[in-house]
Amino acid sequence: MTTNPEHDLTPEEQAKIKDAEWQKTLRRLGLGEVDISKVSNDDILYLAKKWSFLQIVESSGKFKPFDKPELITAQSGWTIINYGDAMATSPGKFLYGGGFFRFSSDEDEDEGGSGVVNPKKGTIVKQAFDSAAEMVRLAKELGWDGVQIVDGHPDMQEAVWVEACRIGISADGFVPDTEAEKKRRRIVSESIDEMLSALKGISQKR
């Protein structure tokens, strides 16, 4: 018979252990005393951007899961895990180094500077958007009828919807607001301009 040591502790002792773990995490993050009662929703969303993730599934249910997931390196450097009927991605290895958290600064445009996560690939926010968009393109290449967003950071969910609209594949699980609609129109417009410019260049060469 096995017992859980925590069950033998008083509530006060359990609280002390949890507090010690919390303080250890803060030290590893390079932070001092933090009053969590003052943490706002914006603070949580800011931190969530540093650990963005996305999970999508094929919407028709026609695809079967692989016996072994396929690991794909995205152009952003992130790893996309293809399960056959689902995909997932996150910054993964770029967030941890020797057990310590590493952050990039969204304001730091010096990509080669120290402290930047996954240098030469843009800010962590751009990497998240690019990775989500690439997952949608990959889904279309694989013949998926559409994608269903299971979970993920709001910005990555928005990226799925925008890219799906751009390349013509259905995407469920995200309800766009006005800002998302503006972004979609801008990106689609830029894509059309790039296509017309390319066609014009081909015509001139002839």
Care to describe what's here?
The chain has helices spanning 11-28, 41-50, 124-141, 154-167, 178-205; strands spanning 54-58, 70-73, 79-82, 86-90, 96-97, 100-101, 146-152, 170-172. It is of the alpha+beta class and 206 residues long. It has a 6-stranded mixed β-sheet, with helices on one face. A two-stranded antiparallel sheet has the order 5-6. Helix 3 (124-141) packs across helix 4 and helix 4 crosses helix 5. The chain is globular.
Shape: globular
Main sheet: strand order: 2-3-4-1-7-8
Number of strands: 8
Number of helices: 5
Note the main sheet: 6 strands, mixed
Instruction: Estimate the mean pLDDT confidence.
Output: 78
Helicity, in percent? 40-55%
Proportion of β residues? 15-25%
Radius of gyration: 22 Å
Terminal CA distance: 82 Å
Going by helix content, strand content and strand pairing, the class is alpha+beta
